[in-house]
Structures are given as C-alpha cells and as structure tokens.
Amino acid sequence: MGVADGEPGEKYCAGCERFLAFGAFAKDRNRRDGLQPRCRECVAAYSAQHYRRRREAMGKTVREKVVVPEGHKLCRLCGEVKPHGEWHRNATASDGLSTRCKACRAVQGRQGHLMRQYGITEAERDALIEAQVGVCCICLKAPPEHVDHCHKTGRVRGVLCFSCNAALGQFKDRPDAIRRAAAYVEGNAWKPTLVAPGVYQLPS
Q1: Which contacts qualify for 125-129: CB closer than 8 Å, 24 or more apart?
Q2: What stretch or stretches form a coiled coil here (predicted)?
Q3: What is the pLDDT of residues 88-100, one digit of tens each?
C-alpha cells in the first residue's frame, strides 16, 4: 500500500508506516495538515528511547516500565509488584498507600535501628557473626541475634543470643559480679570474712 492509498480521514505515519485515523496524531500547527508526521505511539516510543539514551550517557539507570494490575502497586525499592494488602496506609499519598512495601519498610527499619543504636550497618553486623562462626560468643551454642555494646563507651562487643544478652543485662555489665557468679557455679562461693566483732569484709 502506498502513501496515497489511505482512506478518507486517515493519515500515513512515517514511524510505524501505517494509515491511522486523524485522532491517532497530535496536532502541529506548523504542518500543512495540522498534524504531526508520526502517530502518538511512535512519538512516545521515540521519546522513551531518547530518554533512555540520555540517561545512559549520564551514567544513570533507566527504570523499565512495569505493567501493574488493578489492586496492585510497584515498590520502587525491591522492584516487585504486590497487592495493596502488602502496603501500609498513607493518607497524604495520592493513592493512599506508602511509597515502600511493608517488607522493605521492615528492612529499612532494622537498618536504621542498627545505625542509630549501635552505629553499624547490617554488613558489619553480619561480619561480626561470621567472625563468631555463627554462634553466640558467650555460650558458643545458640544463634547470635542481639548486638551487644558497652553502655558507657558505645563500643560494639559482639552479637549474643537472647539468653546471654539478657544475662549481661541482669548483671548490669559488672565484670566483678560475673566473676563471682562463675566462681559460685564452680562451687567456690565467695563469702564475707569476719575481720572484727560484727565487722565483715566483702570479697574484692
């Protein structure tokens, strides 16, 4: 079919090389027929390609267009399309939903807590666990789950299991009390020494 073979009310698109209805073309006052030479779809495709090339030349990533079904939303953080039930509500957003899915918000919450509370990243915590061969560095049995730090200096000491971390808390991080507890468990209980009538000296 040649360019002149179109039906009345149709125009030839120089992009996709098809005859399309006038409504498929955007207006252009500088053209004789008042319409752009390419249809809207071709113009959009060309603009997307030009945008991609420009972004790539700048060294920036280009987001792929994702088809999102009704009742779903794309999470720009993990790149997954999830149903609305996987999102927290946000009354200020245009769609009433958070910009990140619940899973991504939870991950970022943990990351933020590690940085705020201990000044370390998840990678640094994982490196500590790896250095401990994947076990609590006190009992050497249970999996490490809780970052332990010195409450005076803020220095991170290691990653402990729940029980060992709770035990340190009960002992209030006092090495002397912990040593006495160890001696007590071993059968060497430390007892006060009578130094004068009614006067006892506590073990140092």
Answers
A1: 125/159, 128/156, 128/158, 128/159, 129/159
A2: none
A3: 999 888 889 998 9
